[in-house]
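Lesson 9: reading folded outputs for more than one chain in a single document. The general rule is that every protein is listed as its sequence immediately followed by its structure tokens, and records are never interleaved. Here is the first one.
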Amino acid sequence: MRMSAGSWFFAVVAVLVTAGLFWAGDRITLQNERTIFTANCQGGTWQGAHCTGKLVAGPRYRFRALRPHGEVLFWTVGSAEPSGRLAPCAITDGWACQPCPDAERTITLEMSSGHPVVGLNIGLTMPFHAVSKLRWWLLRAGLRLGNDAAN
């Protein structure tokens, strides 16, 4: 049975929409990497997860867990700053690392279900306010959708 041109069109559109949703949800990653998209509060201050100024796209922090080595590499996307290394780390479905000299250069020492664990390492890591990948790209394009971050 042959599909008509209209059926092919809708099938292709459905595949593209599905792929777009996976991309926006950051479910497809290269080389088992996770990126945390952050927001900054320009011209204001943070009151919990609420920015009193203008919410703008912040740095993107990327992490790559290396299970055989028991370590996690991290870097700030687009930054000239060198990458860092967290070790020793317990790596299973997520990862949890012990405090180390590079901890103060990153935003978390633990990742669970693809999300950074916040609060356990206060004072050891940098504070941050996360947003979704799609929202980060909208902020980067200058489109503001509220003043609240995810954390």
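And here is the second record, again sequence then tokens.
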Amino acid sequence: MSPVQSPALPPATSLPPVSDLTAHLGFWLRLVSNHVSHAFAAKLAATEVTVAEWSLMRALYDKAPMPPSRIADDMGLTRGAITKLADRLIAKALIVRAASPDDGRAQTLALTERGTALVPALAALADRNDAEFFDALTPDERASLLRLLKGLAERGQMTATPIE
């Protein structure tokens, strides 16, 4: 039996130079984003609401019943995604689907009384999560970071609500 041989690697000096992962702004954005998002998801887990569900609930808060198509447009999501989220929230008795008063064939979505009461508590969790990560910044640093990120999102036409 012959020993398994690994292919010969070229000497390190002949490899083209490549940047380190940590040299990329995207690496740092993703690192921070993952930690912020995962911490928020963990806080929400106790409420049995996901980040995506919270996003839809917040979109419905303090609004008149709306058709799913309008919510999809407002959030930058597909109608199918809104339908799936709505089905989950309806099963949890946090939103209701009803016939539109203007067109009986159309449907609207609205928060239930229980859903409306839950939104401020979920918003407080979001605020606390934000503070835990970003209160280390000075007010000027925080304002600068917000301005820069909003500017990048605007220039890149990034309008979809992040739900993951």
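What the second record shows: The chain has six helices and two strands.
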